[in-house]
Fold this sequence. Notes:
- The chain has helices at residues 11-27, 55-62, 79-87, 100-111, 136-144, 176-181, 187-207, and strands spanning 29-33, 44-48, 67-72, 90-93, 115-118, 147-154, 164-169.
- It has 212 residues and is α/β, with parallel strands linked by helices.
- It is 39% helix and 18% strand.
- The longest helix has 21 residues, at 187-207.
- The protein has one domain (44-207): Glycerol-3-phosphate (1)-acyltransferase (3-Layer(aba) Sandwich).
- It is globular, with a radius of gyration of 16 Å.
Amino acid sequence: MFFVQRVKRSPLYRVARWSMAQLARGLLRVRVIGAEHVPEDGPVIVAANHASYFDIPLLGISLARQADYLAKRELFALPPVGALLRALGGVPVKRGGIDRAAMAEVARRLAAGRLLVIYPEGTRSRTGILGPARPGIGRIVAESRAVVVPVFIRGTRPLRPFGEVTLRFGTPLDFGPDVALSAQMQSKKLYARIALRVMAEIEKLGQQPLSS
């Protein structure tokens, strides 16, 4: 199931993904479980825990579809780096508040049927322990009605040469009915409830034994 390509990607994305896949093959033992749960088309949000910068490329090469992703705006400040991140699907986002421009861009991409990777904790965990989800993912899910595929990534903190990294994908979560039934609920409460559910599903995946 690892490194399978089903969906057409941009030439630059294909080159970057292939290069990272070769590097991962040579230096790590990567195990991907349940990647078939990711829908092959339509708007999808892949939500994962985040313990290391290596989570980003390793998750990217485990997906059959091209992925867009949110990245802190500071990374786009250097022209060469920013241009590369944008070409690979990065969306700059301002941390510490609501970035309306980023949210509008995310909404546009999901409406176009693209796949978006989000790390609900909003930043890397310094300890590897799951942190609370920020409500931003709840807002994106509620407004886009995209399905959410939870993922737990294990083994990237610390990342050791020839060590094992496991990416476990869960079954898609459809919050459409919840959003429809919660029309009278205050938006902030709805966003928080969705965020809590997403993180709970990620945590469940992390509790499953490695042998399964």
